[in-house]
Amino acid sequence: PPQGVEVKAVNSTTIEFTWNPPPQQFINGINQGYKLMAWPERSPEDVIIVTITPDYHGTRHLGYISGLKKFTWYLTSVLCFTTPGNGPRSVPKLVQTHEDSK
């Protein structure tokens, strides 16, 4: 799975992900990109997935999931996918979106 995954709420509806790619020797095939996943802690079936194209220039990757519910706890995970399919997910991390100041 992707390494060193960090997740933080940017505002009341957006979560920012940063991560390092998995070690190249463990990628089965050619890295086609990453899938960022977030799901409400209480409803794991409501998974939101955002696909990110790999950036070969930097070591640290960056991506966002927006359109989330405000002031809600989300479990988040990242995986790398290749032509044969999805790789293993990173260990889920819990993050809470911000409460609107209005």
From TrEMBL:
Domain Fibronectin type-III: 1-100
Organism superkingdom: Eukaryota
UniProt-listed Gene3D superfamilies: Immunoglobulins (2.60.40.10)
Extent of the signal sequence: none
Residue intervals passing through the bilayer: none
Designated name of the protein: Fibronectin type-III domain-containing protein
